[in-house]
Amino acid sequence: MTALPPILRPWAAQLSLFPDDLALHLGPHVARLAAALGGLRPRGEAEGGEPQGYDGLARRGPFERLLVSEWLWALEAPDELVRRAAFGELSFLKPAFRQPQGARRTVVLLDAGPDQLGLPRIAHLALLVVLARRAEAAGAAFTWGVLQSSPGSETHTGLEVRSLMRWLEARSIEPATANHLDAWRVALDLHVSPGDAWLVGAPRLSRLAGAEGMSRIEVSEPLEPGAHRLTVDVRPAAQVARSVVLELPPPDDCIRLLRNPFERPRPAPVWTRADRGLRGFAFSGDGRRLLLHHADGSVAAMAVPHSPRATVPKPRRVHVPGGQRVIAAGWRYSGGLLVLARHGDDYVMHGQVRTSKGFRKVRYEALEEEERPDPPPGAPPLVLVSGLDGNGQEHLWMKTAEDHLVHLPPPGPGGSPFFGYVAAEVSALAEVRSKPVYVVRPQKVSEKLYVAQLGVLDETPTRMVPLNARHGEAYFGYSPSGAHPDAGLLAVRHQEENWRLFLDLGVTQIVVPSAYRVVGVVHPPAPSPPGVLALDPDRRTFHFFSEHAPRTLVAATDDVVQAHASHGQPVFGWLTKKGELVVWDLMEATVLYRAVPEATP
């Protein structure tokens, strides 16, 4: 969850269960309660365990563990040995023990009776997040349940959406009693030594028979007009009590936390008539704009909404004059939309290209017919990728349908520039960290099969980085951290079902069945690792393949004819056979944008 501030990253795995806005409301409560609770103390040497060698030095111990160098005093200066022993200056080997970590556990029993109904349960929810993470950090098991429930069927381990929903539904009009507590103590074997066991509820729980030796957390709501806060008293067993005041989120968000904190808001989809004749789409060279190709030959650059609740600005659209055919399109952060169109034997750039003397319009000279980069009839236009040289001049590149990399140089004093062919067998082209990069498939020379290579175009000469992959089909993707220093998140096919992800610390192997069609590489929210996005053989369902077990992300309403993942932000989109365009947000697992051809104004 990249939306969390750095101070909340330790609880990212637990807070990722909630939508971002509710996680940000719970986060401050979690941080304050964690500071009040403190960490789960590790077992000391006195608690025993299996001997496991030595771990450092100590000032006390039996003389059998005295350092050999210390025995020299007995030979050279016996009186000094006696003095050092009296003043605790001798050094002994400190034994290490293998602690029975599996036997450690944290037990939490929550009161769901009338004393704690309503707002106090928000504090309970934050405490479950804190205590679950606290136990995980110490390698302890985490067991929890509701006092008024039956221990046989309502004992939970870990935090999951299903168990938390059962807790939210376990409201009771019966106050917690000593019988409830005794049933849990017997079921969890807490009679001998409660250990790290906590009672969460009203102060009256301390008076229950059997609560002796258990730590308590008392949650109360101030009886003041207009008060919108909770007081939480943390009372660990045999330790000093600490008090925390929690200012609650707005009332609407409190209702969501108490009813269903895991339901993500479903924004009204964006319907637009402008996409009635949508022929295809692509993400811009930097991955931050959606390029829409319409049946009337026009091209639009649309900003991808930053959240499901954001308003979509009106796309900038370019209509080429009659007699011209759109060949390629691109978008620059500084310069806007570019559309390359063929007019007869020449090529015209709609939009201005940056030169050392400012922005200029460019026309490219005609090439031989067999060297033209035109896409096949009916195919979507190519994507233009932009980059600046040391003189501030803008260079453009595009990957043709024949997988050739074509260079569009800036205009010079000698007239209109010509296209230049840079490389063949190019499988991917993108702008990564303001640098244009591409991947070349392995070349077979002299019966030797070379590996794929990454080309960095902003350097002279072009720097080529070997990639240990034998097939070469590649996709660039977005990752907030841990990506390759030159390519960002990059997936390259190595064999028929084997893909390799190139990251900052090495290469990850991922297996994707050959029946699935890979459409991109993505990095969902933590704790998920990066992986490959693939379309199911049913042509509707998108799956995520990574080091973990495969999982389903989302399903389209009709057969998918085109799908792309952005390499500039955590989103991907698809176009269905019926013309529906959908952009999906990986962070919130919801629709960012939807356009259907049946819409009416």
Written description of the protein model:
This protein is mostly beta strands and 601 residues long. Among the domains are: 6-41 and 101-259, no CATH class; 54-98, no CATH class. The chain is built from 8 helices and 41 strands. The chain has an 8-stranded mixed beta sheet with strand order 19-16-15-14-20-21-22-23, with no helix packed on it. The chain has a 7-stranded mixed beta sheet with strand order 5-4-3-6-7-8-9, covered by helices on one side. A 4-stranded antiparallel beta sheet has the order 10-11-12-13, with no helix packed on it. A hairpin with a 4-residue loop joins β11 (289-294) and β12. α2 (20-37) packs across α5. The longest helix has 18 residues, at 20-37. The radius of gyration is 32 Å and the shape is globular. The two termini are 37 Å apart.
Quick synopsis:
This protein is mainly β and 601 residues long. The protein has 8 helices and 41 strands. Among the domains are: 6-41 and 101-259, no CATH class; 54-98, no CATH class.
Topology:
Elements: H1 12-15, H2 20-37, E1 50-58, H3 72-76, H4 78-86, E2 92-98, E3 105-110, H5 120-137, E4 141-146, E5 156-157, H6 161-169, H7 178-187, E6 196-201, E7 215-220, E8 229-235, E9 242-247, H8 251-259, E10 278-283, E11 289-294, E12 299-303, E13 316-318, E14 325-332, E15 336-343, E16 346-350, E17 353-355, E18 358-360, E19 363-364, E20 382-388, E21 394-399, E22 405-408, E23 420-423, E24 426-432, E25 435-440, E26 444-445, E27 448-449, E28 452-456, E29 463-467, E30 474-477, E31 489-493, E32 498-503, E33 506-511, E34 517-522, E35 531-535, E36 541-545, E37 551-555, E38 560-565, E39 571-576, E40 581-585, E41 590-595
Parallel strand pairs: 3-4, 3-6, 6-7, 14-20
Antiparallel strand pairs: 1-2, 4-5, 7-8, 8-9, 10-11, 11-12, 12-13, 14-15, 15-16, 16-19, 17-18, 20-21, 21-22, 22-23, 24-25, 25-28, 26-27, 28-29, 30-31, 31-32, 32-33, 34-35, 35-36, 36-37, 38-39, 39-40, 40-41
Helix pairs in contact: 2-5
